[in-house]
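Handoff note, outgoing to incoming analyst
You'll be picking up this chain. Sequence as last confirmed:
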Amino acid sequence: MRTHRLGILLLVFCGFIALEHFPLMAQEAADWSSWTSVTVNHKFNKSLRIMSKAQVRTRDNFGAFERFFINAGLGYKVLPNWELKGVLAYHRRRSASKGSFNAYRYHLGSEAAWIKGDFRIRWRERFQQTFALGDDEMIIRSRLMFDYNIPSTILVPYFSIETFNDLENNDFFKAERIRYMPGLRINLTDMYSLSAFYCRQDDISRKTNIAGVEFIINL
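Most recent structure output, in case you need it:
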């Protein structure tokens, strides 16, 4: 019962954050984008898993292709609630100024989880480096996520906040991008689940609304 109350308090807390932040949408002209993904996880044992994701993104109010990427990597649990991750990715991107081009990325990081009954908190730190058009970009990404498996249902609402810090920026502690993401995962079976989400992306120079769907396969 205490865990159930904790999950309800989580949903209320995330709702207050959304109500505090999202009214700005009505005051700003923001682009709408979409992210459509398929994610596959395969566990070799309790500690080691392989993971892969393919995703297509649009921009300009769903009217233009922005990127396609596919990645693959490994996750290793050094402790039951602490996992180390390493991923390689290929991106095919298109922008109005640069046209179509290839990009390559790797990221290294770790994720720790605190679990109490059906309630879970996850903290992820990630270093990523992206190479494109003869240049590279190094980013530190920090994400805090809450989710709650509603008892006796297949529904798992969640909410995350993620910040992006450019390592080449002298003002490191000023996030150049923040993502606020409420969503809902539906556990269709033990193997398949479907996640639908809204993401509000705040960059220094622009705002973006993202509608997303992800199909997840756990082998």
